[in-house]
Amino acid sequence: xxxxxxxxxxxxxxxxxxxxxxxxxxxxxxxxxxxxxxxxxxxxxxxxxxxxxxxxxxxxxxxxxxxxxxxxxxxxxxxxxxxxxxxxxxxxxxxxxxxxxxxxxxxxxxxxxxxxxxxxxxxxxxxxxxxxxxxxxxxxxxxxxxxxxxxxxxxxxxxxxxxxxxxxxxxxxxxxxxxxxxxxxxxxxxxxxxxxxxxxxxxxxxxxxxxxxxxxxxxxxxxxxxxxxxxxxxxxxxxxxxxxxxxxxxxxxxxxxxxxxxxxxxxxxxxxxxxxxxxxxxxxxxxxxxxxxxxxxxxxxxxxxxxxxxxxxxxxxxxxxxxxxxxxxxxxxxxxxxxxxxxxxxxxxxxxxxxxxxxxxxxxxxxxxxxxxxxxxxxxxxxxxxxxxxxxxxxxxxxxxxxxxxxxxxxxxxxxxxxxxxxxxxxxxxxxxxxxxxxxxxxxxxxxxxxxxxxxxxxxxxxxxxxxxxxxxxxxxxxxxxxxxxxxxxxxxxxxxxxxxxxxxxxxxxxxxxxxxxxxxxxxxxxxxxxxxxxxxxxxxxxxxxxxxxxxxxxxxxxxxxxxxxxxxxxxxxxxxxxxxxxxxxxxxxxxxxxxxxxxxxxxxxxxxxxxxxxxxxxxxxxxxxxxxxxxxxxxxxxxxxxxxxxxxxxxxxxxxxxxxxxxxxxxxxxxxxxxxxxxxxxxxxxxxxxxxxxxxxxxxxxxxxxxxxxxxxxxxxxxxxxxxxxxxxxx
Amino acid sequence: xxxxxxxxxxxxxxxxxxxxxxxxxxxxxxxxxxxxxxxxxxxxxxxxxxxxxxxxxxxxxxxxxxxxxxxxxxxxxxxxxxxxxxxxxxxxxxxxxxxxxxxxxxxxxxxxxxxxxxxxxxxxxxxxxxxxxxxxxxxxxxxxxxxxxxxxxxxxxxxxxxxxxxxxxxxxxxxxxxxxxxxxxxxxxxxxxxxxxxxxxxxxxxxxxxxxxxxxxxxxxxxxxxxxxxxxxxxxxxxxxxxxxxxxxxxxxxxxxxxxxxxxxxxxxxxxxxxxxxxxxxxxxxxxxxxxxxxxxxxxxxxxxxxxxxxxxxxxxxxxxxxxxxxxxxxxxxxxxxxxxxxxxxxxxxxxxxxxxxxxxxxxxxxxxxxxxxxxxxxxxxxxxxxxxxxxxxxxxxxxxxxxxxxxxxxxxxxxxxxxxxxxxxxxxxxxxxxxxxxxxxxx
Lengths: 732, 444
What we know:
Distance between the termini of chain A: 48 Å
Low-confidence stretches of chain A: 1-25, 32-60
Radius of gyration of chain B: 22 Å
Low-confidence stretches of chain B: 1-30
Number of helices of chain B: 11
Strand order of the largest sheet of chain B: 3-4-1-7-8-2-9
Largest sheet of chain A: 6 strands, antiparallel
Shape of chain B: globular
Shape of chain A: globular
Oligomer: heterodimer
CATH architecture of the largest domain in chain B: 3-Layer(aba) Sandwich
Helix content of chain A: 25-40%
Order of helices and strands of chain B: HEEHHEHHHHEHHEEHEEEH
Strand content of chain B: 5-15%
CATH topology of the largest domain in chain B: Alkaline Phosphatase, subunit A
Radius of gyration of chain A: 30 Å
Number of domains of chain A: 4
Structural class of chain A: alpha+beta
Largest interface: A-B, 66 and 76 residues
Number of domains of chain B: 2
Distance between the termini of chain B: 43 Å
Mean pLDDT of chain A: 87
Strand content of chain A: 5-15%
């Protein structure tokens, strides 16, 4: 039965056979003094200080890997691990000529003429060598080419914030608290110089609310010094007993004093990326970090120019500690160019660059020089060109490593400490790199990049503009959508960085409370209460449930595919032509009944057995993720089957009753954590895994599994892997 | 039925086409001047073509017979249209929406080539301040990216269109009309600084390229190309343009609702008008309008005032396209699909109307333009890549033999793209991975 079903499948598809505004830290300013700048890029011989991975095998010929990715990976998996077609691993004892002949004659099934002769022989070599290597011993340095990475819009905006706006004081409302002690006043309000000393609430007194026995109030006050008193029952005027700052009130008593510091509204990062088109992502690549797609057209370039002008003007108008000198000072143009330039470019300027930007600052002014720096390729691209490592490959320079670490772990430009570590060579050693990585992972700023990863990993980014039916839309307003995105982002962050957690399993199984009053109606429980209805982990979050649904109905197909593709990395071919769309809406039937054709018809079943059986278990949740027990008057049949969890065609069955159980099944599998590791790797490296990366990917997966799904260790593993800092010459 | 369908008219279009009626209009300078501009108008998810059960295409045009119902909106422009029957995009990825989208304008399997619009932008379009204008209506919605976009500035890579007509207007028209108060010294200084800054970028890009392999260098070359274009644009601003031709009435677009399907018709109409106006103003020769994207979730039953309108029922483009094995009017999916396709053709006809309403030379802008209608598959249910629904309208300054039905006998569509290239005056002797020469019968 199983082989028959798979045969169907293959014949169908051709597979036969805001933490950055920390003021005191000023993290993005370099240390004062000569040590922090002026260091030349590391010389080649120094750069080899970090030993590369084992040189047991050279990378496979790039041509074969590319051919494999183009013709074979869709069915056999990007690493030969199998998918809709059989696995190609462990064939090391086969005869190369025989395999090559078979490839030439029969592969790919859709066009057996596509790879013959030398092409087939190279592929056979790839399968026999690369796919049969023991990942414990093979070369994990990978095959990423020397390259440059265009900043994403998010990285660009965060970088500007941390370069120029890091030391601003954000506006906070003034907060008043009054502990009445033994008194039991009916009302308390604040009267002061800022509101005209009103004696009553009706006259404009700032009302205080009683919370846990204490009266509190907040107000947005202008910067400066304000005096105030509390007024009890609109009769008794008393100074703030907890505030030692007072002044005479002119009536023999005292007023309390509050000093409101000058503040600024934080800059809107979107304003600095206006007009820059969204990042392009190839089909199936979930992250905006795809390196090869980062391309600058005239539309981009013009937007970069305008944004650079705008940001330079804003940064200079505001000033701040990033500005090294006053324009009129002697020698300022050179200091401005080299010091600001080194921060913007994340590395010391070359002599030619220093001369050019010094001249600009001197002749045209600081704004022109800063505009030029911000529109420069030196800012827009971060280099991963590396320097020769003496063994035929290239190792990233310390400054390149600093940028790679920072943009992956923090989503922004390196801070002063990281740049200092680059300058003094610490990032050229394994231990130094790991130490800096640990520091970054432990910092609250790591939450920002991880939040970006989380919503892209789960594919829920488009929730704010997802279409919902006229009936559901009123229940699913902008505030609800935003609250759902925040929930998922915050949940993943909390799991990853909770010192007592940090486990992959928790992403799928942890119980969570309703996070926000805005979601109380949707989740059917008040804010703070445990989420009901078997919701746990990300599977039970309405961001996921509503994204993987239609506008007006649930979608077992999308939800099943979500589990297969996003959580298990199990790719299924696209639906065949004439597949039929969503079955007609039938006012008397449940969704499960309507989709029964998929499993009754053997043609459909070959694929849908892997999709619908999983997706049906989500039927207790409607198109916006609300819990339901009936549909069109019929009871919802509970449960699904997480069949073939570890790989398509395995023939296993794992029935589950609710999403918490499904989450536990996934959490205990090997396939789900292994998949997660490859997804995080994609986000970090901005490239899909290919045949030549097999050793690196397997090494990462093994370490993650061996650690029991330790998420913070996985972050560390990604950046300390040889492939993070090794590049190869791109094949001509 | 309320949707203007008529069974007899369905049957009436099924016969074989007749070749080669003479074009009804040709400007006098026919053989001398190339077409002045190209507009590509794309809509998603194909048409009611040959059904899975073998019923004939409901798109096919026959000479002498009324236009089929799906194309009825083109009747007033029939003489300006070249109808192409039986064009094929080849067997690779047949049955796939993304596979079709990749081939559509590149003529290369897998999108492995620069698309014809970009080739023209970088050649005959390079004398305009905007070499290429790519406008979308909900074309980036739902994170649509990669092969959901049809314009390939480089082999293997698309760029996203502008989905916001207000932003597109500002970026296209800003500074294009001379200030009547005379030159502004501050603006002059900004222009000078920008030019010097671009010069610096050019040098730094050259430096950055060192040590990189061919595909990385190609990425930076695209950046260099962009530098050249923007330099030229800045230099070009000094040219005074006619304010009457370079303005646009107020756009009634809610920018906060760009991804609300209710507003889709207004956005698409605004983008069409904007592109035509930008061309009238001389800002660009090459433009692409992309309505949504393949496998579209666009809820077309929310278009008020259309025959699809049903606010209580969500009918999406892709959902309707899988209407079943037959052209079955009893099925809601098919009725709606048919109505949707008619609507898209109406929007294409509106572009032709806009061009025809603007005088140019001894005729109208339409006489000097090429306007290509296309979708990434033929029949929306079978996803076939044969018998593709291409229509080429506009006289192209007499370079194209409009007013006829061309039975291409299954020729590859790259030949049509080559013909468009040649009609535009570019040196495109062959195009696509089939190295197709211009399709016989297209050029006059």
